Amino acid sequence: MLLGRDGECAQLDALITQVRAGSSAVLVLTGEAGVGKTSLLDYAATHSSGLHVLRARGIKSERNLPFAGLSDLLRPVLGHLDALPGTQRTALAAALAIGPAVSADRFAICAATLSLLGEAAARRPFLAVVDDVHWLDAASAQALEFAARRLSHDAVGLVIALRTGVPCSFDAARMNTLPVTGLEGAAARELLTRTGRPIAPAVADRLVSGTGGNPLALLELTGALTDGELTGLASLPEPLPIATAVQHAFAQRLDATGSAARQLLLLAACDATADLATLQRASRLLGLDLADLASAERVGLVRLKGGSVEFTHPLLRSAAYHAAEPQVRQAAHRALADSIGRQGDQVRRAWHLAAAAVGPDEDAAESLDRAAQAAHARNAFVTASRAYQRAAELTADPGRQLAKWMAAGQAACLGGDLDSADRLLKQVIKLAADPGIKADAQAMLAYATLWTSPPITQYHRLIADAEAVQPFDKGRAATLLALASSVCIMIGRLDLGLEIAARAVDLGRSAEGIAWLTSQASLAHASILTGSRETGRRSIADILAGSGIAGPDLALQLLRMRCGQSLIWCEEYQSAEDLLTSSVAAGRATGRLDDLPYGLATLSDLYFRTGEWSLAYAHAAEAVELSSDYPTNMNLSYALVCAGRIDAAMGAAQVCHDRLAQAVALVRPIGVVSVSAYARAARGMLELGTANYGLAAAELARVDAHVKQYGVRDPCVIQWRPDYIESLIRLGRAADAHEQLALLDAEAAATDSRWAKATAARCRGLLLKPPQQAISQLEEAVRLAEESASVFEQARARLCLGQALLRFRRRGEAGRQLTAAYLAFEQLGAQPWADRTATELTTAGVSTIPQHKPVHIRLTPQELRVALQVADGLSNHEVAARLFLSHKTIEVHLGHIYDKLGVHSRTGLARLIHSGAVQQ
């Protein structure tokens, strides 16, 4: 047991026990340098009998080498690579440079990492120990983070050490973390005793207090002090050199090795993984003899291991590097670059040349450019971006420099490093004299930061650049204007968005291609929002008439998703589903998770409207999960409001409120107004369903103010007004209800909306006083609701009709309508509405109807997603690939699904899923 670490060791023992039992466990050790994280990792590795142990360590000099850390971690389990799905297998092989380069999304490699770990664990449980994760290259960090978040039922343990206060590509949020702090008093004093040096109790207390119990600081500070200072005969330095104690102590140890050894240690520090042959060649170029490292090895600064020089602590390497003068460091890097030569590792050589450069250096710049291209080919986009950026800094020619800045910005976008993309693309915009280049950079910048910066700022930039480029390139101008139209819609300037979209179409018509398609999609979106549904339909028809919208390109996937959303508003549900499912399928196949949440959330909206709430719930939950792991604020916000509306209809009040509050909070700082309207509409539905009519009317009155202010004129965009009318009727505010009904009738007529006509008929039936007129109108509402394809609206219309029939003592007819409504509400999982209907059934004298609980009520969201995929005939491996989960996780979920639903085979599950409900 480590000194003073009983609690930490107990947590590690529990993790190892959990892995031996066949479950996954992740623990991230966080703390300052020298606090003991590495010792705890060593404890875990040496106490893992029965487990295969994988080890990797982030190394600062390898931060710019694509997938260096991931390669070290996965090398022992690469024998299982052939078991991965084809896309994942080729993507990971390319990333690790053991297969040909292929174009893939970064998340395909993340998913492949997860799958490989799962396949390895199926053969033998293992523990993966990763030290200094803060120094991992960005691509490796992303892949490790993805796996850590999504491992669940595999016999895999991950123990990761992360230094606090260091910029890092690994995000430990929502992972199990263990802060490692300094040793407590007794343990810290025992550590001092073990140094063998005489230390007065008062001095020991002062050292423990001053270092916060940091073990490395205690040991090194004790070694740096004199016997007189330690025994109290001489005063301690005041203040204690705590902040730099370790660095000072290490520097003193370096000085003791002699000048030649210090220079050799600098060489080793410049490239911590260089082999001895490379170091030998570099040392000769500097007039040194590698044998002089023996003195450093004798005093415990380094050890020769595996044909390389390994520092005994990462901070020793840092001390060896930073103790040298800049020109000495540059000479060491130059020697290493020359020793690698043009036949060796060109990525390492490029970065050594860059570190050796003083001012512009074309050789270094071109070497880095080639390194960036190689990283890009392996889909290590953030690494490529850093190489392009450094190449730009070393390039003297303005034209070539600008091209490298642009490439750096584009790679940062592809890698999801939006902060760097913003900075790099703004540099291009600042330097570019060519309006075309500036327009391309502005479009890229807008895509990268559309949901993270104030939209009004984006709008002005886009318009200005569109006007500048229009005389030279109408296609580029059209693309910028289409983006500007989207920005207008975000901030509620719908009429302006429509005007800008029309301008974009005029320009894009002559350009054709993606510029014209994007412009048409923007016009369709804006037209439908502002009440010109037929214009929107024609624009989408024009898009779909050609073959240009097909294809795997990300821009085309987003275009299909946007057209799908517009078609939902037009109640063209089958066409919308075709577009959206194809885009989501393409996103799953390629591992593109950035925009998959948007497609999933939009599909959930469609399935909510058509009454397939199991599908709606599954898609919304997955959209929330994916966009929470890799968020852009708007994707997550949209997913949350879609999920929140389902919660509202099902009566899950607290979950609904929490999701909607988070959705609004995410986008409020950047001024996106539409989310608030969606959230209030969902809250209004929640309160209406539970008969809180006053609260419902208050929420929906705010939606009314929103649509009036911003000009939303299609009733199917948000679908809120019928709820407002009903809440007003229940409150006895007939005059206000009549006013709102007149508006709904006008919108229904203007858009020819089946849903609006059906809901208007229902509301009219609630308002009419003569019995037969009310019943006739509600019967018409039921008929129209059946035509609208809205199962929920059909059930609500039947509930209202049944209530009206009861009031006029037509109990038999009422019972039939109420029974149909009750069964529909139960199948949907709309519990508040089912409860209200059950009360009316009792009044009608109908005996208790057996309750049926839908699948999505009985399963967790992840189990539901698995069940739906299995019901479609997919194998466990295929489901795992689609859902970015491990094969073992699918197996475990399937077992739980069988138990909960009372089925025993995939065939039985498919039959049950497609029936829509299970009996309780």
Strand ordering within the main sheet: 2-3-4-1-5
* CATH level 1 class label of the domain at 615-851: Mainly Alpha
Corresponding CATH architecture of the domain at 615-851: Alpha Horseshoe
Distance N to C terminus: 52 Å
Q: Helicity range of the residues? A: 55-70%
| Main beta-sheet strand count, sense and barrel state | 5 strands, parallel
Q: If you average the pLDDT, what whole number results? A: 90
Query: What's the number of helices?
Result: 47
Low-confidence stretches: none
CATH superfamily of the domain at 615-851: Tetratricopeptide repeat domain
How much of the residues is beta strand, in percent?
Answer: under 5%
Broad structural category:
mainly alpha
Radius of gyration of CA atoms, rounded to a whole number: 33 Å
Number of strand elements = 9
Q: Identify the overall geometry.
A: globular
CATH level-3 fold name of the domain at 615-851: Serine Threonine Protein Phosphatase 5, Tetratricopeptide repeat
Brief sketch in words of this structure:
The chain is mainly alpha-helical and 920 residues long.
How does this structure look, described?
The protein is mainly α. Among the domains are: 6-179, Rossmann fold (3-Layer(aba) Sandwich), CATH 3.40.50; 185-243, no CATH class; 252-340, no CATH class; 615-851, Serine Threonine Protein Phosphatase 5, Tetratricopeptide repeat (Alpha Horseshoe), CATH 1.25.40; 856-919, Winged helix-like DNA-binding domain superfamily/Winged helix DNA-binding domain (Arc Repressor Mutant, subunit A, Orthogonal Bundle). The chain has 47 helices and nine strands. A five-stranded parallel β-sheet has the order 2-3-4-1-5, with helices on both faces. A two-stranded antiparallel sheet has the order 6-7. Strand 6 (302-305) and strand 7 form a beta hairpin. Helix 28 (554-569) runs antiparallel to helix 29. The radius of gyration is 33 Å and the shape is globular. The model has no long low-confidence stretch (mean pLDDT 90).
